[in-house]
């Protein structure tokens, strides 16, 4: 190969330097550089040696100035680092991150959310996950993975705004300084986004207890745009915004691309089935529906918050409640659990705290829809409730949708609590037994 | 390394550009076409600095387009294995850090960061020596050695190391 047609005519007065450049350009554009060197050596060394040898041969034929030699030595000052045979733990731009060698096969997990072209092998991922874990835990931090839609915010396509919501078009906040606003029109994406009340306080306080990730089923441009609204200074989510473009499994979210040990990760998401393999890390969020299109998408026919010009409560809304739960989990993990920090498991804390919510309740269900019953039972049991199928004096709560059923009437007679199934759902979302009187049943005249 | 070299390119020009300003049109199209592009051989074309020679145009049948062979001088930038580069850190994390030197994106993995530098997470993730005297974080300037390069159509990727004498931070942004 030759570069005669593009020879660097103006770069240097000395012929040998021009010759050297030709050598170097050739050297680097052809990947097969070391042919006669012994195998098993670090490629980098081989190439450099090869280069030096070639350079010397040009010296012999063309002679050289001392200046040429000095330049050469400076640039190719031999590395004294001896690298053992490299395991190629990962790649960047298809080159090994350890030895720089070009790697042919595309293998390992892509970490596009950190930098495109970065791939790591499983062993390297678990090595990174385990190193510094002790130090990380001693700094009293855990990991928190946050969903976007319906958890931290609600987004609608502009054209899906209902007529009653059109007033919002004139009420959006400036994109100049997003840290003050909560309603944004993103013209270039044809979207409008409403941040959930309390979200800024939530992120600020949570960041003191957790290293935080965003993990959304939206695509990367959307995810990054939302991250900018939530974290304009890039303090919380820098290079920790994971989108569906990054996942390793379709329609599933996984902790395999998060650099935290699973025993130290909490997840906040409104969609349980996205986390099939990590349910024990999950704190299920009550969905935030600000826009009518979002309500419709989930089959609600009620007016949206935007249509009624209202919103979730800032002080005791879902995020404020969950922040309290997170604080409790955090302090239990670090201050109450015994044993070495590294051996503790936040999933245990989660399930034992959950198990206390309804621990003194003995529940019996009355004429609950067959589809809904198993889930309700499972949720109640996870919160520590005892579920019975036969009436019994120990029963404390009858859960029904109809006050006229036999068990409902028994509850009233025996002065037991008679509550709607939403009482269980609310306890599940707020991690607290809810006042029964807020979930009472309307009296029906229909006696069966 | 930067090089000042002469390259050649066949430029296709639409007939509407012919006339008095033909040469200017050719040059401005050339700049638009080549500046900021990369080739595996020469690296990144930083700027066109002059025209050596414009050959005779050949008219294409049917379209009226004319192809001119243009010889031009330009400054190119191309990193080499073994080269020492100064770069600005753009991102620091558990895996190592990313840095940029003009169009070149460099990754220095934590395998190639000296063992006495430890990763610290937080608002401003960084690698710091145990005595706290040296810190690498976003916007730090570092001197590193290239151990691998790959040149794409528009980007140059490099693997770098700072695990050697005289490599590492040359300018700490927090002390300025
Ligand atoms: Mg969601
Ligand atoms: Zn390697």
UniProtKB/TrEMBL annotation, chain A:
InterPro entries per the UniProt record, alphabetical: BRCT_dom, BRCT_dom_sf, Fcp1, FCP1_dom, FCP1_euk, HAD-like_sf, HAD_sf
Comp. bias regions, Low complexity: 24-33
EC number of this enzyme: 3.1.3.16
Domain BRCT: 362-441
Keywords assigned by UniProt, alphabetized: Hydrolase, Nucleus
Domain FCP1 homology intervals: 137-309
Residue numbers spanned by region Disordered: 24-66
Domain of life of the source: Eukaryota
EC class of the enzyme, as a word: hydrolase
Function: This promotes the activity of RNA polymerase II.
Record-given protein name: RNA polymerase II C-terminal domain phosphatase-like
From TrEMBL, chain B:
CC annotations in GO: P-body; RNA polymerase II, core complex
InterPro entries: NA-bd_OB-fold (IPR012340), RNA_pol_Rpb7-like_N_sf (IPR036898), Rpb7-like (IPR045113), Rpb7-like_N (IPR005576), S1_domain (IPR003029)
Key word Transcription present: yes
Subcellular location(s) of the protein: Nucleus
Any one of the GO BP annotations: positive regulation of translational initiation
Gene3D superfamilies, A to Z: Nucleic acid-binding proteins, RNA polymerase Rpb7-like, N-terminal domain
Keywords: DNA-directed RNA polymerase, Nucleus, Transcription
Gene Ontology MF term list: single-stranded DNA binding; single-stranded RNA binding; translation initiation factor binding
Domain RNA polymerase Rpb7-like N-terminal residues, every copy: 8-64
Top-level taxonomic group: Eukaryota
Chain ranges of the S1 motif domain: 79-156
Predominant place of localization: nucleus
Biological role stated in the UniProt entry: DNA-dependent RNA polymerase which catalyzes the transcription of DNA into RNA using the four ribonucleoside triphosphates as substrates.
Similarity remark: Belongs to the eukaryotic RPB7/RPC8 RNA polymerase subunit family.
Protein name: DNA-directed RNA polymerase subunit
Organism: Pisum sativum (Garden pea)
């Amino acid at each position: 190969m030759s570069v005669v047609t593009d020879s660097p005519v103006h770069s240097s007065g000395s012929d040998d330097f021009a010759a050297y450049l030709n050598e170097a350009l050739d050297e680097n554009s052809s990947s097969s550089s070391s042919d006669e060197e012994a195998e098993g050596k670090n490629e980098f060394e081989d190439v450099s040696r090869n280069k030096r040898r070639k350079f010397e041969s040009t010296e012999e034929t063309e002679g050289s100035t001392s200046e040429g030699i000095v330049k050469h030595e400076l640039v190719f000052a031999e590395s004294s680092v001896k690298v053992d045979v490299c395991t190629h733990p990962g790649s960047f731009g298809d080159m090994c991150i350890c030895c720089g060698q070009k790697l042919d096969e595309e293998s390992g997990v892509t970490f596009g959310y950190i930098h495109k072209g970065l791939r790591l092998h499983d062993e390297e991922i678990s090595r990174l996950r385990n190193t510094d874990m002790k130090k990380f835990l001693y700094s009293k931090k855990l990991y928190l993975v946050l969903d976007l839609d319906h958890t931290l915010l609600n987004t609608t396509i502009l054209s899906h705004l209902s007529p009653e919501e059109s007033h919002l078009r004139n009420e959006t906040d400036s994109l100049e300084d997003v840290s003050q606003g909560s309603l944004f029109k993103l013209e270039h994406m044809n979207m409008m986004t409403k941040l959930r009340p309390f979200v800024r306080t939530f992120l600020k306080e949570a960041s003191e207890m957790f290293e935080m990730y965003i993990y959304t089923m939206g695509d990367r441009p959307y995810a990054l745009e939302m991250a900018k609204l939530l974290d304009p200074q890039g303090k919380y989510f820098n290079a920790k915004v994971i989108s569906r473009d990054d996942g390793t499994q379709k329609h599933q979210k996984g902790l395999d691309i998060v650099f935290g040990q699973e025993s130290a990760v909490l997840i906040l998401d409104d969609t349980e089935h996205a986390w099939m393999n990590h349910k024990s890390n999950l704190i299920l969020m009550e969905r935030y529906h600000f826009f009518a299109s979002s309500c419709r998408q989930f089959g609600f026919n009620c007016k949206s918050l935007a249509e009624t010009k209202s919103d979730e409560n800032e002080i005791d809304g879902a995020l404020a409640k969950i922040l309290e739960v997170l604080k409790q989990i955090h302090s239990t993990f670090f201050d109450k659990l015994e044993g070495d920090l590294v051996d503790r498991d936040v999933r245990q804390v989660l399930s034992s705290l959950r198990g206390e919510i309804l621990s003194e309740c003995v529940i019996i269900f009355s004429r609950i829809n067959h589809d809904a019953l198993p889930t309700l039972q499972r949720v109640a049991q996870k919160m520590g409730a005892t579920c019975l199928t036969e009436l019994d004096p120990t029963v404390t709560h009858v859960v029904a949708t109809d006050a006229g059923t036999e068990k409902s009437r028994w509850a009233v007679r025996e002065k037991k609590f008679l509550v709607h199934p939403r009482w269980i759902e609310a306890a599940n979302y707020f991690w607290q037994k809810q006042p029964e009187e807020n979930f009472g049943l309307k009296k029906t005249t229909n006696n069966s | 390394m930067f090089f000042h070299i002469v390259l050649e390119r066949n430029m296709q020009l639409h007939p509407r550009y012919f006339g008095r300003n033909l040469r200017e049109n050719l040059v401005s199209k050339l700049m638009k076409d080549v500046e900021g592009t990369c080739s595996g051989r020469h690296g990144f074309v930083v700027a066109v600095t002059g025209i050596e020679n414009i050959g005779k145009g050949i008219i294409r049948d049917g379209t009226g387009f004319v192809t001119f062979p243009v010889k031009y001088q330009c400054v190119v930038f191309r990193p080499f294995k073994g080269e020492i580069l100064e770069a600005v850190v753009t991102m620091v994390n558990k895996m190592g850090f990313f840095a940029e030197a003009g169009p070149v994106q460099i990754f220095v993995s934590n395998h190639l960061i000296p063992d006495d530098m430890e990763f610290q997470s937080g608002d401003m993730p960084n690698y710091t020596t145990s005595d706290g005297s040296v810190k690498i974080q976003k916007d730090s300037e570092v001197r590193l050695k290239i151990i691998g390069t790959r040149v794409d159509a528009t980007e140059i990727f490099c693997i770098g190391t700072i695990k050697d004498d005289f490599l590492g931070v040359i300018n700490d942004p927090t002390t300025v």
